[in-house]
Amino acid sequence: MADQFFALRGSRNLSRDEFSAHLALAIRLENVAVLLGAGASKCVGGQVMADIWAGIEADHTAEADWLREQHFIEADAIPNIELLLDRLEVAYQDGARRREDLTQLRAVRHILRKAILRAAILQDELWLRPDRTIIHEKCRHHVRFLARLIGNRQPGQAAPWVFTTNYDLSVEWAAEALGLHCVNGFSGLHNRAFHPSSFDLGLRNVQARGEARFGTYNIYLAKLHGSISWAAEDDGTVVEHSSRAIKEKIDAFLASVEPDDWPGFMIFPGASKFVQTTGFVYGEIIRRFTEFLSKPNACLIVSGYGFADDHINRLIISALQNPTLQVIIYLPEIDRYGLYPTLASSGSLLTPNEQLRRLLTAQLPQVTVRGFGADAHFSSLVSELPEPALIDDISEQAKSIEQLLRRFSPKITGSVGNAAPTAAKLEDALNLGGDGAA
């Protein structure tokens, strides 16, 4: 079972070679993006929701029981911590209006915020020395991931997008390690404020000539659930801080016992502030995701995402009405959903949410699923991404000559018959249309 290769495109199982060929073609489409979830950061030290909740259950049993007693979570379910925080925030606002005793609620909220923050720290030493990302053993997958993603861009194609539900800084650190500019919606030097128009900007090398002019020098990064490096100012402006600048605030918060000293990091969803600053930033970033999914000849690769966000799920399913969109999903637990009779389960069955079930059981040819277990982890995606293809002036000239030969083939055939054309006759034939045609 461990050696079984599983990849399914539509209703057809793919062999390893077929999947590799499909991935190589998809990654070189006109528009390419990757959607990363919490599972993509586990190799750097991150945690998924189940890990975070397990830590809370172990270290804060009384608080976990209180959440069940107050019906904030179901008895035996692993809660979505983001949604749980949102419910607590709504309850807090309502309780404050009623002037109720909110001591226990504030204490539980404090514990949950700490748990989320710890999960997003990844590697503590990189906060003060992000320049060491390039040589950090645990960051190698993210560095290779961006290098291959950028390297597979063809001449004239746009820079790739990275959409992520993670709060951590793994993508930013890896991009800077490679010297890539990270366009994430913020602009400015001393005051990096959120300006969504920056997503419409790109970079080019004005000194480059020939093929080098078409190189990709940046990635577009859209953090769908916010970031621990973002904060809202008193005037409603959303700003981004460097990791060095906020490290002291993070350490102070994790060491604190007071329930109201949250540093103000932007973590979505947040119903209490949605109509204000959160709604503006979240709406703009989601809009960029929607716009990408509607682009022609687009590919979306999904890794480490557990399909826990119904809004994102609906956008992906709706986007499949775009006939030129290809979706490739790395899903480690696919063998535990019991959706495919040909794939034996390796453990107790899981019940996928309704949207994921629809996506998988429809077996659309636009959707390719890669499983299972470690074969579908983020590190597997990185290893299976193709190495960049070499493109030089000679190969491009050969393609141009081939196109010209096809264009003028009737003229060449008429002038030389069935005999092989000489260089002179080829030159004459290619010159028939004048300088403009050639």
Provide a quick synopsis of the model.
The chain is α/β, with parallel strands linked by helices.
Structure description:
- The protein has helices spanning 16-26, 49-59, 61-69, 81-98, 103-121, 140-151, 170-177, 243-254, 274-293, 310-319, 354-361, 378-384, 393-407, 409-416, 423-430, 434-437; strands at 6-9, 12-13, 31-36, 161-164, 181-183, 186-187, 193-194, 218-223, 226-232, 238-240, 265-267, 298-303, 325-330, 367-371.
- The protein is of the alpha/beta class and 438 residues long.
- The chain starts with 5 loop residues before the first strand and ends with a helix.
Task: From the structure above, extract its key features.
9-stranded mixed β-sheet, globular, alpha/beta, 438 residues, 41% helix, 16 helices, 3-stranded antiparallel β-sheet, disordered C terminus
Task: Outline the secondary-structure elements.
Elements: E1 6-9, E2 12-13, H1 16-26, E3 31-36, H2 49-59, H3 61-69, H4 81-98, H5 103-121, H6 140-151, E4 161-164, H7 170-177, E5 181-183, E6 186-187, E7 193-194, E8 218-223, E9 226-232, E10 238-240, H8 243-254, E11 265-267, H9 274-293, E12 298-303, H10 310-319, E13 325-330, H11 354-361, E14 367-371, H12 378-384, H13 393-407, H14 409-416, H15 423-430, H16 434-437
Helix pairs in contact: 2-3, 2-5, 4-5, 6-12, 9-10, 10-11, 14-15
- Share of helix, binned: 40-55%
Please describe the biggest sheet, giving its number of strands, its sense, and whether it closes into a barrel.
9 strands, mixed
Q: How many structural domains can be distinguished in the coordinates?
A: 3
Taking all Cα atoms into account, the compactness measure Rg is 26 Å
Q: How many DSSP E strands? A: 14
Mean of residue pLDDT? Answer: 85
